[in-house]
């Protein structure tokens, strides 16, 4: 059951004891085994867990693309739609190679048949602001991996999303690029005042970017622990240099290792 | 060559060029050797030129047809039929593939029929087609469609199905309907694989056109071949086959070129 949250000061998104079961002819797979959490307005929440633990499933539920088998997902959203406007980002930038950067960014408005000139101005301003002004008319293949992720973010921002869902958006990038690009993308999301839920299996990345971290267990997924990242710095290199970074890393590492068979991905 | 290139790179480019030249040389050699052996065998009496013709006699015969302009007429008729058949087959096949994509249940229901019809020798229906459709161009077109449509449907549908799930999820998160998903993602993304499927259609089309001409026509290369066979003018048969090979190779090259362009357009 999905309902809209209407009380003032309520979280933007709330999962209450959510179960999700997949069915195949051979078996029933319980992907989520009673997941409860809230997403507060303006926060950067990271879901951290081993591969195949149903993290992407949580995002599909949050986007309203799936309905829970039991429990409920609730949003604080305009009455009309019941779901806030969702901005998705994927592992692969998902830019359409046959469209220019600007046309990629205008996909959302085009699909909703919104007045284009106004949206186009907004998109061009965003591109200018985030260093892609010279690449407005370029095709995605002419951009570097980091620039492509930035273009993908601008495409989601062009739709004025109420909630950003990031599905391992940096895992296809190499290690060096990943650190710069993830800081860059998280910085833009904070500057634009957006709420984001990101999924990752990379402990260091989670601590580098999150306000709060939810540690998920293996399937059937539940939330093992909620951690507040109490490092005041927002900038990724500064965060990584903080002594607290190592401590949090240690806590999370132990928490994830204590589970049978699962090995969290390292990298400091 | 660009003077800025290093010696090593120049050597590499030279080596590549030499390799390409060697390959082209052997390709040309095979054709020349084939025709030379054929000609020689005919002149030495190893092959009876009355039955097997010979390159010189076939070319002489073509030259005669060229001079009285009947060659243009026959080749033109066949080419026009093939072009029309290819176009109609591609459009009809594409349309049916679109319908099956739109209605997945219909695809599941019809799947075994598609497989069986695809493996049937549909040419066997040729004589019946004359009775049903009449002995004119429409019969040739019908035979062509019969031969080419099903394999086009299967190839194009496979192209539609290949499209990246992330792109579709992204459009859904923008609120796109099925038609928009097709128009914005599925169709453009599958252009290369669709064109690739059409390459197979080229061969099928020529089979259909020639068999159609065998059955009904009073003009065209297929007619020349049947006529030449009946009156024992093997020069005419072989000459027509040569022209036919050139035309179908040209049409294939055109589609292959289109595929290359399409792949480049999609940044592959």
Distance between the termini of chain B: 27 Å
Rounded to the nearest angstrom, the radius of gyration of chain B is: 24 Å
CA radius of gyration of chain A is 19 Å
> Per the principal axes of the C-alpha atoms, what is the gross shape of chain A?
globular
By DSSP (H or I, 4+ residues per run), the number of helices of chain A equals: 9
**Helices and strands of chain B, in N-to-C order?**
HHHHHHHHHHH
Given as residue ranges, the uncertain stretches of chain A (5+ residues, pLDDT < 50) are none
Chain pair with largest interface = A-B, 23 and 20 residues
**CATH first level of the largest domain in chain B: which class?**
Mainly Alpha
* Beta fraction of chain B: under 5%
Structure description:
The complex is a heterodimer of chains A (268) and B (268). With 268 residues, chain A is α/β, with parallel strands linked by helices. Chain A has nine helices and ten strands. In chain A, the strands form two sheets. Chain A has a six-stranded mixed sheet, sandwiched between helices. In chain A, strands 1-5-2-3 form a four-stranded mixed sheet. In chain A, strand 9 (212-216) and strand 10 (223-228) form a beta hairpin. Chain A starts with a strand and ends in an 11-residue tail after the last helix. Chain B is mainly alpha-helical. Chain B has two domains: 1-47; 54-265, Orthogonal Bundle (MetI-like fold). Chain B has eleven helices and no strands. In chain B, helix 6 (126-133) packs across helix 7, helix 8 (165-173) crosses helix 9 (178-216) and helix 10 runs antiparallel to helix 11. The A-B interface holds A 60, 63, 65, 86-88, 90-92, 94, 96-98, 107-108, 110-112, 139-141, 159, 165 and B 164, 166-167, 169-176, 180, 184-185, 188-189, 265-268.
